[in-house]
Amino acid sequence: MDLKILEKLQVECAKKVIKMDILTKTETIGGIDITFENPKENPTRAWACIVIIETSTLKPVYHKVIEDIVDFPYISTFLAFRELPLMLKLYKSLEIKPDVIFIDGQGISHPRGCGIASHFGVITGAVTVGVAKKKLCGKHAPLAEKCGSYSYLIYNDEIVGAVVRTKEKVKPVYVSIGHKISLDTAIKIVLKTSIYRIPEPLRLAHNLLKGIRKTYYGCKVIINKN
Fold first, then answer.
1. For the whole prediction, is pTM greater than 0.90?
2. What is the mean pLDDT of the chain?
3. Is 33 marked as binding a ligand?
């Protein structure tokens, strides 16, 4: 494992990211999340989940979970090389594809401009948005407590994302361009699909995976293994 080679791959990937709206509709939004049997071990069993919702109702219309072994260690700023193979396997297996996909992670708000949301978008051609719970890089102005408030995230004198308050007096999320979307549109869609802190597609995917982890250690659970 040569991290210098992986860094070069990320730099080349960043050059291919489209930072403008190349989407015709936003009727369905998907959220992809991953959980691990033991996050500190490598290799370890992992599950990837997508939940797709209707934008107009925020109700789920489709979901799928797959299971596999992940054998790349967790290394900060190299998350894509750990989680992306399973995400791609999930995406290829979908019976329907959403108009936009939220990825639990960074997009271009990454030291080399290509976090997992951008990497996924460039490889698949999907419209993607990075929605992270923590900041990876950059600085921003103080954020108002009001729901809908946001402040641009600046890194190396460039706007790489936004800190967005999706619920009043609750911690914000970090939104960034993944691929084929503008930051302003990404922020609008995140706010439109948020009832709680985390946008519904990602929140529902996280909850589904949380349930699978519980049943894995107790009752049987039926999941896709393809």
1. yes
2. 94
3. yes
